[in-house]
Amino acid sequence: MRLFSSYRVVFASKNGATGVELDLEFSADGVPILMHDETVDRTTNGSGPLSQMRLSELGKLDAAAKHRLMETFAGEKIPTLEEAVEECIKLQLTIYFDVKGHPDEAAAALKELYKKHPVLYNSSIVCSFEPKVIYRMRQSDPEVVTALTHRPWSLSRLGDGAPRFSSLWKHHWMTVMDMALDWAHHHVLWKFCGISAFLIQKNCVSPDYAQYWAQRGVEVVAWTVNTKAEKDYYQELLQVNYITDSLVEDCEPHY
């Protein structure tokens, strides 16, 4: 389940979640925090690039200001990575550390976190769209469980399928790069990075696809699965884990 607030971690646990996804980013003064975007505009009552805001400034924002359950979580603060992890450990939740970038900084921060909380070696996984992040993490600490995250055509198209670039030339070039990246993920990068799981957009997951990775000793995790029918399909028929935005109700589909 995707979360960025410490209180919502507790909320997820009470609703039956066995794990949570924590989006790792950094404040301007280098503090690891939880934030999905590069700016605070979409999810808070603030505005501006995350890279230009110190932790003290971020602490003044309401992290639930634009959430659909804003009344329930009004006044929530953006937690530090340390705060969120301690809460997850207390609740015995599996953690998916979703690292957006900053491979060197992220590897260093997570290495320290694992050293401080050794229980994480058996209860968490570091994942990223960027192979370099996973490579750096494995270099920093080979004992950490890692995963690659992938969505076909992510370089040339947005999540809803719309072209990412208005330039026809650039669109075609990035389409070629998408095909190369997809091939690399399935034939080279997974082994080179030493992953244990592959987080893939839900529409790609089929019985044959799950079997493909099972033969390689890699677990498949589908995202983002937001309806009861989908959850039953992935969990009962395909027997793969999934990431969802809600455990108790159907949400808008995420592609």
Automatic annotation (TrEMBL):
Name of encoding gene: gde1
GO biological-process terms attached to the record: ethanolamine metabolic process; N-acylethanolamine metabolic process; phospholipid metabolic process
Matches recorded under InterPro entries: GP_PDE_dom (IPR030395), PLC-like_Pdiesterase_TIM-brl (IPR017946)
Gene Ontology MF annotations: glycerophosphodiester phosphodiesterase activity
Residue ranges constituting the GP-PDE domain according to the UniProt record: 1-255
Organism: Cottoperca gobio (Frogmouth)
Alphabetized PROSITE patterns for the sequence: GP_PDE (PS51704)
PANTHER family in alphabetical order: GLYCEROPHOSPHODIESTER PHOSPHODIESTERASE 1
The protein, known as: Glycerophosphodiester phosphodiesterase 1 isoform X2
CDD domains hit by this protein: GDPD_GDE1
Record's GO cellular component terms: plasma membrane
Family: Belongs to the glycerophosphoryl diester phosphodiesterase family.
